[in-house]
């Protein structure tokens, strides 16, 4: 808590140094509405003592728009939609082919199935919010939504890199040591 003194006649705030308030004491009272009066000194004194808390809270973030004009925003929406639908279709085909065919139940195809699942997860993390922002011309994301997106993006990227590393090692073992 920071202690602040208000001079009612001058309309100035004193806390070690003085700065002026343009519209006088009433406007400073509106600007300092979160201040709490601790006590009022002796009668007739023009100085009031207040305590102000130094706190802030973030409820949402403002995102930078991809385009300024509405036509470009709709173009971005169509591009996001086309690319995400193509990725969803390709990953869905990989998942259904590996899951349905008994010939593809080998370690490499198991890793490929898991890679397609993590790719679906990473696509569904950020692209829908970007499409929503482009279509409805909004620019905000909640703090919780941003934290969830950051967590999920890092989770899916880490799992994709891990799966790719395991797949590379599996290929190395199958090529360099085929009968061991």
UniProtKB/TrEMBL annotation:
Membrane topology: Multi-pass membrane protein
Signal peptide residue numbers: none
This protein's record includes keyword Transmembrane helix: yes
Keyword Transmembrane helix belongs to the record: yes
Classification via Gene3D superfamilies: Rhodopsin 7-helix transmembrane proteins
GO molecular function: G protein-coupled receptor activity; olfactory receptor activity
Keywords attached to this entry: Cell membrane, G-protein coupled receptor, Membrane, Olfaction, Receptor, Sensory transduction, Transducer, Transmembrane, Transmembrane helix
Pfam family name, one: 7tm_4
Residue stretches making up the G-protein coupled receptors family 1 profile domain: 90-180
Subcellular location: Cell membrane
Membrane-spanning intervals of the chain: 74-98, 104-125, 146-167
Chief localization: membrane
A single Gene Ontology CC term: plasma membrane
Protein name stated in the entry: G-protein coupled receptors family 1 profile domain-containing protein
Lineage, opening ranks: Eukaryota, Metazoa, Chordata, Craniata, Vertebrata
């Amino acid at each position: 808590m920071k202690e602040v003194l208000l001079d009612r006649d001058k309309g100035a705030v004193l806390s070690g140094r003085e700065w002026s308030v343009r519209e006088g004491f009433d406007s400073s009272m509106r600007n300092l509405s979160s201040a709490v009066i601790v006590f009022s000194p002796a009668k007739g004194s023009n100085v009031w003592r207040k305590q102000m808390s130094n706190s802030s809270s973030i409820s949402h973030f403002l995102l930078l728009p991809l385009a300024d004009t509405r036509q470009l925003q709709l173009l971005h929406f169509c591009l996001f939609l086309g690319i995400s639908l193509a990725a969803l279709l390709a990953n869905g085909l990989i998942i259904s082919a590996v899951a349905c065919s008994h010939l593809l139940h080998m370690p490499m195809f198991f890793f490929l199935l898991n890679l397609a699942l993590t790719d679906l997860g990473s696509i569904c993390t950020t692209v829908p919010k970007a499409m929503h922002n482009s279509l409805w011309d909004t620019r905000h994301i909640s703090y919780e939504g941003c934290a969830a997106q950051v967590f999920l993006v890092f989770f899916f990227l880490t799992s994709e890199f891990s799966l790719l590393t395991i797949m590379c090692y599996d290929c190395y073992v199958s090529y360099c040591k085929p009968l061991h």
